Fold this protein.
Amino acid sequence: MIKAIIRKELLDHVRSVQFAVLLAASIALFAANGIIFVRQYSQFNSDYRLHVTQVEQHPSTIGTSLFRSPSLLLFMAEGGEKSSPQGYALWPKLTFSPMPAATMNFKMPEVPDLDWAFIIKIVFSLYVILLGFEAVSGEKERGTLCLVLSNAIGRLRLLTGKFLAIISSAAIALLVGLIVSLIIISVLLPAVLSLPNLARIAVIFVLALTYLSFFAFLSLFFSALLLRSSLVLLVLLAFWILFAFFIPDTSGVIAQKFSKIPSEYEMAKLVGPTIQKEVWDRISKLQDRINKGELKTEKDVRDQADLAFEEGQDRVRKLYADYDNAMQQRAALAQKISRVSPVSLFQYAAEDISGIGPAAYTRFLQDVRNYSRVYDDYILKKMGKVIGTSPWSFSDRAILNGKSIFLQSPYPQEYRGDKSDFPRFSETKTTLLDGLVGGLWDIAGLLLWNIILAGLAFLAFIHADVR
Amino acid sequence: MSNSNPILKADDLSKRYEDGVLALDHLNLEVRPGEVYCLLGANGAGKTTTINLFLNFIPPTTGTCYINGIDVTKDPLKAKRFVSFVSENVMLYGNFTARQNLDFFAKLGDKTNLTKEQYYQVMRRVSLQEKAFEQRVKTFSKGMRQKLGISIAIIKDAPGILLDEPTSGLDPKAAEEFLEILSELKKESKAILMSTHDIFRAKEIADRVGIMKEGRLVMERTREELQHEDLVKIYIDYMKSEPLKM
Amino acid sequence: MVKTIIKREILEYLKSTKFLIGLGITLALAAGSTVINVQNYKGRLQDYQTAMQEMKSDRFYIHLYRPPQVLSTLIQGKDASLGNSITITYMGIPARTSGYMGEGRSQPQRLVSGFEAIDFAFVVRVVLSLMVVFIAYNAVSEEKSTGTLKLILSNSVPRDQLLLGKLLGGWFVIIGSLILAALMSLLLVLSHSFIAFASSEWIRVLVFIGLSALYLTVFYGLSLFVSVLVDRPSVALMILLQAWVLLIVIYPNLGVIAAENLFKLPSKQQLDRQKEAAFQPYEAEYKKVIDTFTQGVGKGEVSKELGLRSVELDALRAEVIHQVDEEYGRELTAQTNLARAISSLSPAVLFDQAAVQYGRTGMAQYEMFMREAYRCWKQDVERSKLIYTDREAFKKAPAIAFSVPSESMANAFAATWLDWLLLAFFGLAFFALSYTAFLKKDVR
């Protein structure tokens, strides 16, 4: 009997206006996703190749650049790639600075990327609500609910049938969309369809269904609880706005409240007027020390100047490193807070599975740190000394024994010899398993939400007044 | 029954819909003040179409409807002043109380400045329970809603009253009460046109009965004539007979 | 008689659960988002004030700070994401502002949902428009299905009066909700001592509320139209919700994506090459001057002619680079305008564009700041030349005055009149359609 119910419900959904629009929207959006991604990736890739070749052709001990390779899976979850730095400029002494993102129009309004994650988490979740909101309330309003229940079918079975019908309809539309997207992408970029990638795609599909089933259960719950279709829809849309927009967007602000990080202005003040000033003071006081007889030779003077400069630089580097860490922790806290929302859970899990997103960015940062140690070792080997670089510079004069000494900030030198053994930068690759492990909590969270809402839906339906 | 001019008059009224169906075929009828005219017929016979034509909800294909001598299609707003309407199965405004519903429709019928007591009087007249006066209509049973519907018609105090299947779905007691109110209104010289397929009630209340079949008024009988004939038998015979030619 | 209908309509809405829930959600979100945005503004204002006081310019580095806009508490726009400071020397003027920590260091916060921040404008654009749909979708179809429509029309009520009554009743409720939410947000904003509205702010706020009213009226017209056309309320709701998703979620984003893909921007390498090529004629001289000058300084000799020339050449280089950056900036604007044009069928986009203009949180105010910064730079170049021509004058030279005028209301109107026009057009069109459809409607 449950098969009859599933069949009837499924046909009902498939013939509805909502489903037709969902199917059309799915095809259109996923097609657009495919086309856009191919263009984006080609551009990112050619830029990347260009940059990497440049670095390979002109290795330097003064500074180098490290770039993020674009992922072939960008179409699944863009993960903020467009606004993340495209790489780092690296200088000796573990000094690195992010290079701003590739050509991004800062005048343009902020718009979410049309990746799979967006289409599924915003558009499909909305449509699951539209498919499911009158599952119980609509039947009651039409008078068919008591008709169905006058047969020998348990309420549990009936609700399960309704649920399966909703999720199957969504799955059909989703599958069609994914196939359209993959066809477009694979025709132009066959490399995408490697076996590991196909595995990730399959996992994303299952993850998407898990995510959508939360909304299916949510819809069934309210439908059985409130029993008036328009009210049910209103409440469901309120929750949708809460989960999809409000919680994710305000988690950052809440994290800000709880994390004590100096504001950007305070940091700038620390670096500039404070540390910089101290270094300048130390250097200008060198003349006094010469006069007092503490410094006797030119070398002494120069060494002291360089020392003051280096120590100041080290403090700045540490400050930035601490700041970066604190910012990362705050971002992690914001993520944690936003995990209340299943929409965020899905987003993070999708990013982990695609190997893109903040987690991937953190990995890259770690790769950069590791490489910078290798780089420093290389410079040490070739030059005998590692000299840091800085946006500051000083030039000052001191008079020793009547002779004028011109002091200038040290700067790294270029090694003129053979640089064919210049260290290569490589990013750590992650596998699907790594992604699953990384996203374990998020996937568990989604499952937990599903269990809770399934339970609530069944409870509500069992106690619903169906007359 | 009086010899004055008819309040409700259908003159050679026909209606053919866009899909070709002839819903009404040259209908002629008159309802005078103090007269109750019952239109009998099966579903789809044309009873509701007739009422819709009187209310100008649809335009006639040929012929004219007159309310108090006014051509309904030429001057619908003026014509509607002289008629009240009780619809079948009216839900009214569920979130409002009985009095609030009455107040709203009274104002629409140009009866402004009525007091609360006057509303209560009308509702008492139709035997609506006192405690229901200030209760929300969505809690009402069908019988209560019908009573409220007729009280809306009463308060407008128009010379003509159109009723579309008013007793359908009512239990016998409620239907009986409803018809008592109608006879009172008849005594107040109202012209009442009522569509129904309740043969028994029709026989009780009607001054004249018209039987409609497939859009045509096939038979008309006065009260006196019905004393000697079995309306039930006539009606059922007609229903069973061959379909009329288009 | 119209008054009777209006009164009943308003009462009906006020008694309905869905209206109360919708209003509750609207007020909660408006309050929550405003509180958050006020805190945000407070932080930025404090940073700005302390920066102005403590991180002042010196003879070489000129620090210019962009004050946060007070109306960003209601309409975030880009105010928080565009950088707060810019540092100029005669050697260069950056292409855009950055955070206090300088280009590359400042990290913008990425919002997980991908959409813009939640502010009062968001509440109007997304939440109130949804509420309008929920209020109006069954305005006519519900009355038809319950039979009250027939009952009303059995009286001498002309159809246009009936529609007008329903229309106005719903409209008053919607505008009432808007005003309530706006008053609440304004109270929350103004209850802080560090926030004060000048008359120009008040005018902008009032115009913005008017704009919001027009925006909601468009959705109301659309909902009314569908309610008249479609008899089954559930079908009407479906259609309206899908139109809503299309107009608010999908179509604006597609406009941006289309523009990004249709209008190709030059890459950073191309820009760098352009800049190199533009300075190319002077490159050789520049190198010679700098080398000779530096050598001289090393020996203790400062050549005034060479020093002056080095300043001139540095300034020239900065100017040439600035020109390339300006051209690029114009292309960015062109791409943005293309996105706007493509999406202008969506009332949400029209509303947003105009709102941001009134809040001074869009590009207009930013561009004014950058133009002032450039003017300031030019003055600095002249002043820096004094180092080598008249050292005393240089030492005595006053700090360069920097003040960014506020965008005038006239300018704001000039930039947004088309948005008003289109919104008004849509609104009138929908109402006209509703009117025509209702007059012909089969009410049985």
